[in-house]
Amino acid sequence: MSNALRLAKGTFGRVALLDMDRPLVRHAHPHCHVLLKVEGVDTQFSVGDRVVPLSDESAVLINAWEPHAYAHKEGQPATIILALYIEPRWLGAFRPNWKASGAPDFFVRSVGETSPDIRWLTRRLAETMVHEPGNTEEHERLIARLMIAVIERFAEWRDEPASLRLAASTIIDHRIRKAVGTMSADPGAVVDMDKLAVAVGLSRAHFFRLFESSLNVSPRVFLNVLRMERAVQAVAEGTASFASVSETLGFSVPAHFSRFFHDHAGSSPTAFRKVAGLQTVDFETPR
């Protein structure tokens, strides 16, 4: 069964070392998201409408809010994957334009050929997370070096000022902004998209079309992202029971929450909380 082997979290976002042997449902993240193979068999992800390879020589590159899924084939052996979920604000401390990593076109391609340096840093970071879970200073240094190498190789960040790209990506219809506000305030309370559409003054069909054209994800995927981010925080950083977290996020029974978490994070909540507790990471913003 797929599970998290190690987890690092801080102002940069989070980095998970995942041992994957089952598919993940179509989902998204509010982060600059990079997937790198550590060991095991070559595998593949579905990003948007493409299936792209993850191998020793290729990285999977996913923009913020871009729908994707782990396309694990039945009977395929497990693959250890380094999954980076990186906050745009943290990246902006390296280069001002890197705040654009929150824009929908920061990575123009969903797959790219890795360099020897990226492959070495991937392995080194994974080994350090496993063998030195408390060495937060080294984790910080390696995550920074790896993300710099990835962005400089795969993102065309020099082409356009970040401020313009970000501004263009944040123009959203006021009714969709209202729906987003309702979802964000209490994602566990939103159980009927038809009622939400009516509440913001739209028909169901118009609501779904306008929402997806504005944010590049469906309302349901967006809501699940909010629920998942709340779940990750509660599981990794809190002490609340999973039953309590499940109820807060609107799941009828804890088993449904556990399956939702595993299908989105690639790990059971129990394993995720266990590896999160191996270290306390408080990374400072890089200078």
Which tags fit this structure?
single chain, 287 residues, alpha+beta, Jelly Rolls, Arc Repressor Mutant, subunit A, six-stranded antiparallel sheet, three-stranded antiparallel sheet, 11 helices, 19% strand, globular, sequence-specific DNA binding, transcription regulation, HTH-like
Model description:
- InterPro entries: AraC-bd, AraC_XylS_family_regulators, Homeodomain-like_sf, HTH-like, HTH_AraC.
- It contains 11 helices and 9 strands.
- The protein has 287 residues and is an alpha+beta fold.
- The chain folds into 2 domains: 3-166, Jelly Rolls (Sandwich); 172-274, Homeodomain-like (Arc Repressor Mutant, subunit A, Orthogonal Bundle).
- A 6-stranded antiparallel sheet has the order 1-2-8-3-6-9. A 3-stranded antiparallel sheet has the order 5-4-7, with no helix packed on it.
- The longest helix is centred in the middle third of the chain and has 19 residues, at 136-154.
- It starts with a strand and ends in an 11-residue tail after the last helix.
Task: Please write out the topology.
Layout: E1 3-10, E2 13-20, E3 32-40, E4 43-47, E5 50-54, E6 58-62, E7 68-70, E8 79-86, H1 88-92, E9 111-113, H2 116-131, H3 136-154, H4 162-169, H5 174-185, H6 193-199, H7 204-215, H8 219-237, H9 242-248, H10 254-265, H11 269-276
Antiparallel strand pairs: 1-2, 2-8, 3-6, 3-8, 4-5, 4-7, 6-9
Helix pairs in contact: 2-3, 6-7, 8-11, 9-10
User: Could you give a short account of the major beta sheet?
Assistant: 6 strands, antiparallel
Quickly name the level 1 CATH class of the largest domain.
Answer: Mainly Beta
Quote the distance from N terminus to C terminus: 40 Å
| CATH level-four homologous superfamily name of the largest domain | Jelly Rolls
CATH architecture of the largest domain: Sandwich
Low-confidence stretches: 279-287
Provide the residue-averaged pLDDT.
Answer: 90
Helical fraction: 40-55%
- Category from helices, strands and their pairing: alpha+beta
What is the name of the CATH topology of the largest domain?
A: Jelly Rolls
Which series of helices and strands comes N to C? Answer: EEEEEEEEHEHHHHHHHHHH
Widest beta sheet: strand line-up? 1-2-8-3-6-9
Strand content: 15-25%
